[in-house]
Each structure stands twice: as structure tokens, then as C-alpha cells.
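User: Teach me something about this protein's shape.
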Amino acid sequence: MLIFGISEYICTFINDVQLRPNCDIIISKCEAEDFLKSSKPVLETMSARYYELSLTSSKTTGYTEEVILSDFFINLLNEDIQPYAILGGINTERTHKSNVETTNYSKDESYTAEQTPITGESQIQNMGLAVFNGDKLVGELTGLDCICHLIITNQLDTATVSIPSPFEDEQTIALEITLTKPTSKSVKLINNSPFIETNAYITARVMSLSNGIDFTKEENLTKLEEYANNYLESSISNYLYKTSKEFNSDIVRIW
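Assistant: First, the predicted structure itself:
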């Protein structure tokens, strides 16, 4: 029986008739009161529509996943998978100044909430996922980690990934990626240890061009394709290692 952590609050929420089971659940990196006060409609007069758009935009970016209360509760009680939630925070001037000089500045998906150097009128920011082991928060995933999570769980609609350019040093190429068919997973026992194999079928469209690189040439496309495959494979492996080894949590239900 769950005693510590946030289980008692989740159980209270799920039994509250004033809360719908399909309401989104956000784990804020700042005080909840500050997060709510900073959440103000931008370019939208209806607050309900504003909140809906701010969360469903994850389907076009892949930087987080829309997680509802009922799913979090089910995962909390399930022995086969651990719960996770949207990671939220406040976009402040401090984060702009502290991160603008980093090497990943042009890779928006490399951050979690309250880390991105992106400026804008909206102060709140949902980026990445909050990972739990049972009812205890154990770690945070970046936007890129979330894209990998959506690929593995076969939930990716579309996302933009900035990969280092294989043609020019210190340059990036933006790729819009989608799944061409469902991701497949298989588990075999080898020497009493599970061997897990995953095949992801991804198509990509080049969104940014490099100076002097002719992408109509087959050799350039082949080089970019091989590099993108290796980059995504490495990113997915890092995501799985982080969740399983560092966080000791399975939010994929790999079995």
C-alpha cells in the first residue's frame, strides 16, 4: 500500500467530483501558486481555450506529452509501468541569460522546463516529463528525451529535432520527424537476462539548409540519413539508460 509521496493527493483528486479524470496533470518546478499566477492567456481571450492549446501543442513539438489524471492514477497502481507527468515551470529572464551562451542554444529540445533561453510573452512553459518511481518523483526528462519516449511508445505525431550537421562544424540541421509505421518491441531471454529489441520506423524532412550543401545529391542525403539514424539511436539509448538505470523507473512498459 502506498503511504508516502503524492499518492494520497492523487487519490484525493481522483475521488473529487469537481475534477474530471481527463484533466491534465503538471508537475511544476516552481511553487504551484507562482505557476498559476504566471499562467495568463496570450493571443487568446478565452482562458479555457488558452490552456487547451498550451497543452495540445505537444502533439506538434513532441517536447512533452499530454498526461491526464486517470492515466497517472492507473500507472501509479500498476506494477508493470511507473507514472509520469507533464513537467512545467516559469519562463524567466534569468533562464534566458544563464542558457544563451550554452553550446546547445540552438537545440531547443535539449532543455527541461525553466531552462530554455526562448523568450516570449507567455511565462509558463511545459517542457519534458517528470518521472516517478511509485509515488515519488525521481527525475526529469528533457524535450529530446520526451521525443524518444514518444517514439518508443508509438505516440509520436510530429516533432522537430536539431541534429549536429555532418557537413559543417558547430552547425545544426533541423529535421521534422514522424513515424511511418508502429514501433515494434520484442523481448527474449538470453542466459536468464532479458534482451530487448526495438525497431522504430521514422521518416524525416529537412527543415533547414546548410550553406553550400546540395541535398539533391544522393551522397549528401545518404550521409545525412546515416548520421540522423545514429543520432536518434544514440538519443533513444540514452533515454532508456536514464530512465532504467539512473531513475530506476520503467515508463515505457517494455514487457
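Now, about its shape. Confidence is low (pLDDT under 50) at residues 96-106. The chain has one domain: 7-246. If you'd like, I can walk through any region in more detail.
User: That's plenty for now, thanks!
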